Amino acid sequence: MQKPKQIKNTEKPKQLKSTEKNNILNTIEKDKILKSAEKNNQNLLSGNIAFEGAEGPERFGGIAKVVKDNKKLNKINFGDILIINMTSPRVVEVFKKIKGIVTDKGGAGCHAAIVSREMGIPCIIGTKKATQFFKDGEFIELNTIEGYVKKITKADYNQLLKAEKKQLKEFVKKEEKELKEITKTELEKKPNSILWFKDINKNDVGIVGGKGASLGEMSSIFPIPNGFCITAQAYEKEVLSVLSKVHKILKIDVNDQKQLEKASKEIEKLIIAVKMSDELKNNILLNYEKLGKGMLFVAVRSSATAEDLPEASFAGQQATFLNVRGKEDVIKYVKECWASLFTERAIYYREINNFKHEDVLISVVVQEMVNSEKAGVMFTVNPVTKNYNELLIEGSYGLGETVVSGQVTPDSYFIDKKQFIEKKTLSIKQKNIAEKTWGLFRDENGKNVNKNIENPNEQLLSEKELKELTDFGIKIEIHYGKPMDIEWAIANGKVYILQARPITTL
User: Fold this and answer.
1) What is the pTM of this model?
2) What are the backbone dihedrals phi and psi of residue 460, each rounded to the nearest 5 degrees, phi first?
3) Closest by alpha carbon to 225, among 299, 335, 159, 170?
4) Which listed residue, 285, 421, 449, 476, has the most CB atoms within 10 A of its CB?
5) Looking at 323, 338, 368, which one is the last position of a domain?
6) What is the per-residue pLDDT across 84-134, written as a single tens digit (0 to 9) for each?
7) Domain presence at residue 9
């Protein structure tokens, strides 16, 4: 999930060396303080910060869910903080529910660190003994600025929840005001229900959502697979007849898992059952024909207008469908994307933070599908250490969804960005080659299938591919004027950029 809000560029190249020194000194000092605090406070446990979470809150209150056995995974509730020895692709499904992750083991390239960044979940790794230190049901504080977890009282827990809501509410209010002003202006220029990437720019978040706005912005400069967006206003018009029923269903206790699940399923059925107007349906199909003569494989992706809000909170809430082909399926999955605005996680998040459901709309991106042999993500600043001189590339075989969703542990390459800019030479400061036993590929019938990898321990990317990706990453960062989180794919030797969004937690 993408958040194309206007974020100040925190990078200051002229002061980079002194800033880095200060960061190192601050980190050493923090470690000393934390170790001392850990010795003197039997309720506190320190670790390494893998991901700080959404812009706004720095301290998160939650209920500990200690998992030593995967059988306990089905007992996790929304808002719990997962305490586990180490995460793996087998536990990724519960990430849609949890508020934070704390692990015993792991480093910057571990599964928990990678997935927490992709799904926007606050995460502290390498505590060594969290699964022994905490008990199920304890109230805990997760501090992703100082890098500790500690036991707290119920009163302290309730105070933290209030503080979180207040911080998010203030941040959202400011962002919504800016977005409404931009959207009003842009809608006057672009009233159509369908917009091609060439007609979209970064100011169109309120019309085509964050993902759509970013793709449009980059389409004339970088190798972006072509496509179009069905606007958020088209969605609003089409589902108008069922909105009163939707809001009635939403009058539930979101902390009651059964009620939440039931409401989400009922709303999904309502929206999918909506008869799309002939005008919009014909318009979508006409543009699909233009894209590839009606038989092209496409990706159908959700692009929520709320993606300009704290990115981590909305990451992974809406649906994406890959290798979609044919008119009937395109229409089917557009409606599935609309319905995904009301997943359990999305409903829970908006309710718990007092966001109005009616203020969040959804656009749908229909984009030419890249049949990738390799794919992954790239961060133009090291998202863990905040080192502006490092660029991080992560990837695996097949479609990139396996990396983004945490189903596989990818290779990771830490590139010396400063040297690449100054000398145009590739210097890999560190690389972690994972065991990539399988990948998700498109078969001859257009189905997404898992395939075993013959040489799972081989390095994924060649030097040429790493150079090309690094070059694109730096150019995209320069274009936006801020550090970026980029999704990429490689097919038939060509590098494609699939998505780019600001890194908002630096």
Assistant:
1) 0.71
2) -75, -50
3) 299
4) 476
5) 368
6) 988 876 777 788 788 899 998 876 667 788 778 777 788 998 888 999 999
7) no
